[in-house]
Write a structure and sequence with these properties.
- One of its GO terms (biological process) is methylation.
- GO terms for molecular function: nucleic acid binding; protein-lysine N-methyltransferase activity.
- There is one protein chain.
- The relative contact order is 0.13.
- With 176 residues, the protein is an alpha/beta fold.
- The chain contains four helices and five strands, in the order H-H-E-H-E-E-E-H-E.
- Helix 3 links the parallel strand 1 and strand 2.
- The chain has a five-stranded parallel β-sheet, with helices on both faces.
- The protein has a domain of 116 residues: 3-Layer(aba) Sandwich (Rossmann fold), CATH 3.40.50.
Length: 176
């Protein structure tokens, strides 16, 4: 006699199923926003987090506060570099015609949609930077190293020291 229990189809618990449905609904809403007329390529969420790349975007309020601090620190006509901090970069770009320039140094090539402001960056090669990023050419560097390791922080710090005129806004979970 065959055991009918072996033919049972696995089922999710009601809690897990509800969480999955909520995730799918949020995903549909994000996609709907992207296809609507009001879509802004610089909005947080326009490029989604990739956890495989250790990406965790800031919430809108945090990204805005960090961007505003960077603008104040850079001053009029200032230059801002965002290292592995794409949501801060996006908030800076949302500010439009403000009197500063900004670039993003990022490993994720999806950010190449931002054109010349995108610089491919691999923290493993901290000084492998293009010629248009000479030493001490940024009024402030905003950085959020992608990994919570001493090695990553040290190598990112090498890039920061190379680029900044002195001002740094460093966001990390490492205890210093």
């Amino acid at each position: 006699k065959m055991d009918d229990g072996d033919d049972d189809v696995p089922q999710l618990s009601s809690h897990t199923l509800a969480a999955l449905q909520e995730f799918y609904l949020e995903q549909q809403q994000r996609e709907g926003m992207k296809t609507s007329q009001g879509f802004n390529q610089y909005s947080i969420g326009s490029i989604e987090e990739d956890w495989q790349l250790s990406q965790f975007w800031y919430c809108d309020e945090t990204a805005s506060r960090l961007a505003n601090e960077a603008v104040v620190a850079a001053g009029k006509g200032g230059r801002i570099a965002c290292i592995s901090a794409p949501s801060v970069y996006q908030k800076l770009k949302e500010q439009g015609g403000r009197d500063f320039s900004v670039c993003i140094l990022e490993y994720d090539r999806r950010f190449s949609v931002y054109g010349e402001e995108f610089i491919f960056y691999d923290y493993n090669y901290p000084l492998n930077l293009p010629e248009n990023l000479p030493p001490h050419s940024f009024d402030i560097v905003v950085a959020d190293p992608p990994y919570l390791s001493e090695e990553c922080l040290q190598k990112t710090a090498e890039t920061i020291k190379h680029l900044t005129k002195g001002k740094i806004l460093l966001c990390t979970g490492i205890m210093l």
